[in-house]
Amino acid sequence: MVVAILSSCLDTEEQIVFNPDNSGNYSMTVDMGRMLQMASSMGSDLTNPEKVKEKKDTIVYLKDMVNSADNLTPEEKTIFQNAVVSVKMDEAQNEMKIVMTAPFSNAAGLMEIKKNFATVVNKLKAFEKASGEQAKPGEDGGEMKMNVTSANPVEDQFTFTAGPGLISNSITNMETFKNKVATDSTLGKMSQMTAMMGDINYRTIIVLPRAVKKYDGPGSSITQDKKTLHFTTTLTEMMEHPEKVSYKVEY
Length: 251
What we know:
The protein has 251 residues and is α+β, with helices and mostly antiparallel strands. The protein has one domain (2-250). It contains eleven helices and twelve strands. An eight-stranded mixed beta sheet has the order 3-4-5-2-1-8-11-10. The longest helix is centred in the middle third of the chain and has 18 residues, at 107-124. Residues 1-8 and 135-147 have low confidence and may be disordered.
């Protein structure tokens, strides 16, 4: 239940910026402000009234960690060597954001980053280093996994593709997706929590090197120059109307 509660208090935003040569930068921001606010309202301050409110602004560059890691593949080391994880927190103001960024040199690198960024961060325990938290014996980075990987509990049900002039993110198998929604206990608990705490919001921002030709996706909007697209959805919409949450962009 703890994982479900914390996950239901997250808002996530991913941004993909393309250069003319198909290189670019990927970032994901997880806003955990509602989680801190909920914890405070549930009386966490009363259990330890003498605890000093934390305030930190930490940046961890993965390069040194990647080079010395023995649990990453050579491909992962190449793709994630310039990745960065940052944590900014102000408990007194109920503010906390985790930002993960990584540059990519081509479409294949972007697909690997989007698919495995959180997994690599978990392997390196980079979140623990950025937040100053240490996993308990035997947990192997459980806190990081709860805070970052679970930001989108159905992410593994999507297939993301990128290539020259085309980007898409769609449900891999609709029946498998619906079965997970119907049977996954964590998703069920999260759905119950959203009724009380508010929905999980997801936003994807895509910045293109030239004007878009065609696009389709949830809650879409486009800038006047037709180079920046916004797609927005919620966990509830994903669960209740999965046919509406895929996106596709041609440019």
